[in-house]
Task: inverse folding
């Protein structure tokens, strides 16, 4: 290879002749490969041949070839920019906006119906002077059962009811463990509500789910009586449903309260007259409640001779079903927009 400028300029002239008829990006890419491809490009081959020249000629020839390479790259970039500009002008001419077309309808999201009821129950509780608490969903046997006076061998501890994990852990079956954790950290007086997800080994059907939501409440102070429990729940349920709602208590048993009670409200569908939903009784069971068992206080170090308290627990999903007259719990979890848009 010779190093004179006359040997280099013809390659530039060849490039210019090849560039002139190029009319698209595809042809331009092929031309770039022809001259600048690392393996077979004409300029690249010339650069590899420099090693055959003497050191004196190699320097001059290398300078000229590098200058040629830069000119080729600049010409290719300029032509590519011209193509892009042409394509942009063509796009502006052909893709005009038809202002007569209707606009797009963007669907606005909203709170899930369960979350709406959850928040409403929290807001009522806060207005009544309660503090909202939360806790872990993976619990130990101690907090979920033992500290709540649920003895070994109790049916609630059975594998058929509880989802057990490794290392003696489990998915909490109620939000009551948060009551124990809170009492361990705080001295009375205490007024808390605990909403959250809970888990039980239930088959999924219209009224059951292995994962659902509960809200529990706890009040501890000196001189707390069953009358305080009754008055608190009546105010809460009338706020949640309607001022005409009637409340009744039926004796029942729960290991962590004594005495315990099932709480019913007058049927919101028939106003207590009797219908299919309330099975003609005029009443709907809504929650369990009672006075905190002295043994629970002993587990957290409270003086059961000085302090008394009451607790209750209700299903948020159950409340949402009643408020919105939904007869199948599974609808809340199927993410069907036709259902969810109603709320």
Result:
């Amino acid at each position: 290879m010779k190093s004179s400028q006359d040997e280099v300029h013809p390659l530039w002239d060849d490039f210019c002749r090849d560039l002139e008829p190029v009319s698209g990006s595809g042809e331009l890419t092929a031309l770039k490969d022809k001259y600048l491809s690392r393996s077979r490009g004409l300029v690249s081959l010339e650069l590899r041949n420099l090693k055959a020249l003497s050191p004196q000629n190699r320097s001059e020839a290398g300078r000229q070839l590098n200058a040629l390479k830069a000119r080729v790259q600049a010409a290719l970039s300029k032509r590519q920019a011209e193509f892009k500009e042409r394509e942009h002008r063509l796009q502006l001419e052909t893709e005009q906006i038809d202002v007569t077309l209707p606009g797009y309808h963007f669907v606005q999201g909203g709170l899930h119906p369960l979350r709406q009821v959850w928040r409403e129950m929290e807001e009522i509780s806060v207005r009544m002077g309660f503090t909202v608490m939360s806790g872990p969903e993976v619990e130990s046997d101690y907090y979920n059962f033992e500290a709540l006076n649920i003895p070994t061998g109790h049916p609630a501890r059975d594998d058929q009811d509880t989802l057990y994990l490794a290392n003696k852990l489990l998915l909490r079956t109620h939000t009551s463990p948060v009551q124990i954790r809170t009492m361990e950290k705080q001295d009375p007086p205490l007024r808390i509500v605990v909403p959250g997800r809970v888990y039980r080994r239930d088959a999924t059907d219209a009224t059951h789910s292995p994962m659902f939501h509960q809200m529990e409440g706890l009040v501890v102070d000196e001189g707390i009586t069953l009358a305080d429990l009754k008055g608190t729940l009546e105010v809460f349920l009338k706020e949640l449903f309607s001022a005409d709602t009637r409340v009744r208590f039926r004796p029942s048993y729960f290991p962590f309260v004594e005495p315990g009670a099932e709480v019913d409200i007058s049927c919101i569908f028939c106003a207590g007259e009797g219908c299919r939903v309330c099975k003609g009784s005029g009443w709907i069971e809504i929650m369990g409640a009672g006075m905190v068992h002295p043994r629970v206080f002993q587990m957290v170090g409270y003086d059961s001779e000085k302090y008394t308290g009451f607790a209750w627990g209700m299903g948020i999903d159950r409340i949402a079903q009643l408020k919105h007259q939904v007869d199948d719990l599974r609808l809340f979890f199927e993410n069907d927009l036709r259902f969810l848009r109603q709320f």
